[in-house]
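seq:
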Amino acid sequence: MKLPQKRLLLLGGLRYLLPVIEAAHKEGYYVITCDYLPDNMAHKYSDEYHNVSIIDREAVLALARELRIDGILSFAVDPGVRTAAYVAEQMGLPAPGPYASVEILQNKALFRQFLTEHGFRVPRAKGYTDAAAALREASEYRWPVIVKPVDSAGSKGVTRVDRIEDLPHSIEYAVRHSLSKAFIVEEFIEQAGFSSDSDAFSVDGRLQFVSFSSQRFDASAANPYTPAAYSWPSSLSPAHEEELRSELQRLLSLLQMRTSIYNIEVRVGTDGKAYIMEVSPRGGGNRLSEMLRYATGVDLIANAVRAAVGDEVCGLEQRPYDGHWAEVILHSPVDGAFAGLSIAGEMMPHVVETDLWVQPGDRVRAFHGANDAIGTLVLRFDRAEELEARLASQGEWLQVLTR
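struct:
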């Protein structure tokens, strides 16, 4: 007898959900999307759409009960992660971990506090809802500091602050991008080499797949703290990678996490010490899991959708990288009208995929945050030295043209 089709509710509608929807359909699932923006791209590819805000957890819970879903997932959509965990817990559906643990991971202030209380290496940091309190305590930090919303992703609302007199403006900027109107002040860790932002996966609380990248930034961008490129393997030493794997496993065990994909950010400071910066139980934006599928053959996306409805995950194992891979986040240096993308002919043998999201004449914005990206470029090289040389000279072979 044919089993009933499983129903998966995806929160959000951004283009990053397209491969998730495709994977779910390949598994035979019925895909429902919801958010408050009916024109979002992913809704055109789901089987059903509902206009419900993904940050209204009670409304999403009511919808989920009405639709009798088998699973819920917020992949690459940070504002929906807590809602997904809440709905899963309330309905007894598969969940990445306890809702209280997801709350800790999704709130930068709570996360820093948890790391500190459990003996993890962590920069001095504190969360605030009152700008005046942060200003009174400003002299207690080692400067410079980073000011961030406690509950946003994609570098939105984030600034580095080098002078105390610039702190009020940075706080105001962070609060504008915070759903809870709360922010965190954190001592800035000057990184040695590249920081890492990549995806991982645990099964029954044990890390089965961990990846590290070299995350790169465009110093000339409107926001130089918005990731502009990634490459794999990472520049981290084997010793630092092993230490971070161990500490990440300790963290997941303490939080009683279960089966889930994660987006993880780490870095090594100029002090030679490794730091866990962010751990979120969701797939990363900027197509990170797609890049890992290219580079290793491990399909985190298919396993994320299977885990969400309680099906067995498979093929999750640590595999070597097939070459040296890079993803460039295409973006405009200025506001204007998109006129074209120019890639030097000599680079074409290394171009695996060009994914352009705009047409000539479309308005584009300078690169203030991840939502200003206009596409991605996937590259493969045989040698690390060639990858590094090409990414360092990106302006010589790649141009986003505007008018």
